[in-house]
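Morning F.,

Quick status update on the modeling queue. The single chain you submitted on Monday has been processed. Sequence for confirmation:
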Amino acid sequence: MSGLLQNIHRLTYKYVSSAFILTLDVILSIVSSLSAVLILYSIQQVNIDVPLLLTWVGLGAIFAFVCFYFWHTYRIVIRHITLRDLPKFIVSLLCRLMLLEGVMFFIYLFQDGETLGLTVHRILFLGIADFTILLSVLVIVRVSIIVFLDHIREVTKSEHLYENVFVYGTGDKSVSFITLLHHSPKYKIVGFLNFGTDSQKITLAECPILYVTNKSRLEKYKARYDASIILFPTEESVRLESDRLIPLATECGLKVMVMPSVDEVIDGKISHSNLREINIEDLLGRSEIHISMDEIKNNFFGKTVMVTGAAGSIGSELCRQLATFGISKLILFDNAETPMHNLRLQLEDGYPELEFMPIIGDVRNKNRLDYVFSNYHPQIVFHAAAYKHVPLMEGNPCEAIHVNVTGSHYVANKCVEYGVEMMVMISTDKAVNPTNVMGCSKRLAEIYVQSLGLSISNGIQEGKTKFVTTRFGNVLGSNGSVIPRFTEQIKRGGPVTVTHPDIIRFFMTIPEACRLVMEAATMSRGNEIFVFDMGKAVKIDYMARRMIELAGFIPDKDIKIEYIGLRPGEKLYEEVLANAENTMPTNHQRIKIAKVREYDYEEAHRMVNDLTVLAVNMKEAELIEAIKRSVPEYQTTNPKFK
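Structure tokens below.
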């Protein structure tokens, strides 16, 4: 019986084809026309005039098809029909009535109406009766279908083929999802949940408004309404309750989920795949950044754009955002085959109109770079290719310099050689007073790129390329970041490893970082190093504990947290990127210009060449000494390099 109900339950959420609805409406037209004629002759108590009957019914059916098709009434999904759709039906029926009456009067006036038994009164009566009956029948049939579907849903829901849901808040966005969830085969709203105290018994859309401030009250409501989910209307509301309601929910075993955005709601319906459980990014993220999208699109529209490191976390998101800007071509450059293949599939599926070229190549290979620049002639280059993991680069300093410094050197030179309009280099907060090789390598790349740009703008070097550098901190969910690692450790049952109980980091989301990069590139006049406001620092220990709670476990009880000590080159506290002492303001409150020492191009060029020779020849000890001379603010914490 349960299987049969499940099948019926699923069938009630499938849409009937529009062709079937159009056919049904034409049949109802025939029924209404036939009824109007029968009523007329019943009132007049005379025999039915068969030619009139056939003519009226036939023309009524033809004109009904034409008018319903023209006004698209058959495309209105019956289960979602509202009073706002009624005027469309009335207009289509009025058009049908005018056509029908017009043709019948023409027959009456010019084709000897007596052969059909026509009179003016009969034509007017038939028209009014037919219009009234058909409108009534169309409404009654649709209301009956809605009532039937609702009845089936209630019957199947009584068999627990769904999940009971609390919706957070009573704002417009929360209330707007009542209709969407009403048509969901998976979820049923049983109450609106708020954090606070209120003894009033108030209902909204037949659901109670509930208030909680502690675990026991929430457990009581959970048991009373057999609820398993708390559904939040927006990511902003998730952040609002990150330290109040959400911890209570996770303690009570309630899943915490976020409603989809408008563009994820398909045909007015929320599917199970649309709703997702909240993650640490939702709790740590901030309000949406407001940037000048029109100006950004104008800046990139019709351009050929190249992204190095295109298959990485930042590079792939840059590609996805660029794909929406109306660019002419997108050149993807990366040496990672499998991630590049995955990105290619994403772009093919998501942006079928985009012309893009995936190129496997390494920024250390000058010949490969020359091939790409000479064949595709990019106008804008985003240089995101880099080695970024601090512990790995501490153990492989020659590779760090070869990729991050030499590679950036080669890309920048090709940009100048082939007349690229702008190169945007992605840097890091670890370039500020670096304590590790990775941060030093990015600072050295900044020095070379900025000095080259200044040399061009001062007329010392030939070229037209503008160079822009953007610095930001840790990116939530990027490849190899702490969040995916914690997630895997939690899945394995722990322990979750944290380097130090007091270690803090600044975070932003990948889309947020990429939008700021786009904005910085748009506002740049050339040769600036832009730094982003990273918001408040977050304790990694706090993050680990919240992730354990969101997974439904208790920290240090179900899953242990272990402190393993700082790794070589790692800071306990990250540098604040943007403050009044080290930056200058821009028109965007989240973007500042770093105050940094400017280097002479010849000095920077000689420095990079020397470092490249040492890196290629694996002269590690000499390389570290050269780095210390090149970046005086470098203070290594690695005992090996002291």
